[in-house]
Amino acid sequence: TAVLTQAGTEVAKAGESIKLQCDLSGFDVNSYRMYWYRQAPGKGLDWLVNYWSSSVNHYSPSIRGQFTASKENSNFYLQMSNLEIEDTAIYYCAR
């Protein structure tokens, strides 16, 4: 059974950086594409990243250059830099 686990609330101020972590178990992380999505308050779900490897990935134009995804061992990360108020959202990792 595949299990994806994310930490609780993360808080950062405008201009700061933060790294979200998704812990993965029950499957080989290198055998699947991984995704990050977010849902801002009162809005629908937005796709952010389709990630296979550091050289095979696709980013939403809205975050390209600001957010960077990565996989390492049994973890999937989203490094977010130069945060803005508009980045306030619930972030989801998915397989």
Automatic annotation (TrEMBL):
One of its GO terms (cellular component) is extracellular region. Residues 1-95 form the Ig-like domain. InterPro entries: Ig-like_dom, Ig-like_dom_sf, Ig-like_fold, Ig_V-set, IgHV. The keyword Nucleotide-binding does not apply. GO terms for biological process: adaptive immune response. PROSITE patterns: IG_LIKE. Keywords: Adaptive immunity, Immunity, Immunoglobulin. SMART domains: IGv. This is Ig-like domain-containing protein. It comes from Latimeria chalumnae (Coelacanth).
